[in-house]
Amino acid sequence: MRVLIVDDHAVVRRGIRAYLEVLDDMEVAAEAADGQEALTRLDEMAAHRELPDVVLIDLLMPKMDGATAIGAIKKRHPDVRVVVLTSFGEMERVHAALAQGAAGYLLKDAEAGEVVAAIRAAARGEVFLDPAVARGLTQEMVSPPTGLSALTGRERDVLVLVAEGRSNQQIADELVISERTARTHVSNVLRKLRLTSRTQAALFAVRRGLVPPRA
To answer: What Gene3D superfamilies does the database record attribute to this sequence (predicted)?
Structure first.
């Protein structure tokens, strides 16, 4: 099967390539250093009817983050499967990746065999999750958190910025994320806190002592 490796660290790409290319059923079709370059590569391969079976992608990258790239990949090339390989296991990132269409989620401390297993599973149309990620998702279903404890660290940051009156674009600039990702974070904060407006979110933050009252 053909694989596109997407990671902003060249040494990571080379290491993955070296391992995959010794396997009889694996071929590295190309590499990309960020989400935007990955889309360009895929469009070029699609023009020659040489799309890869699986894209192995990091999440935190310049120009276009992994979650945004996954959504774009699935929209342009729905038959291509995407597996995340990242250092970040926060449930917020897991949910974002899976919501965009990822078929697997692995942490970078995974064994090489697990990476291969995830790629093969994705190519078969299955979902492969890192054991730690699977445990986190299971815990959420068994005992879902409520109130402020339901928010991830990043969502708390977003809540504070909302309470300070920042727009989605300003939040994106402050946290170095896309405006779309910032908008998603704000929606998640409101949903988890069962609020209906940014004003209510600001009042919630003030009452919890996260920000001082505005004059």
So the answer is: 3.40.50.2300
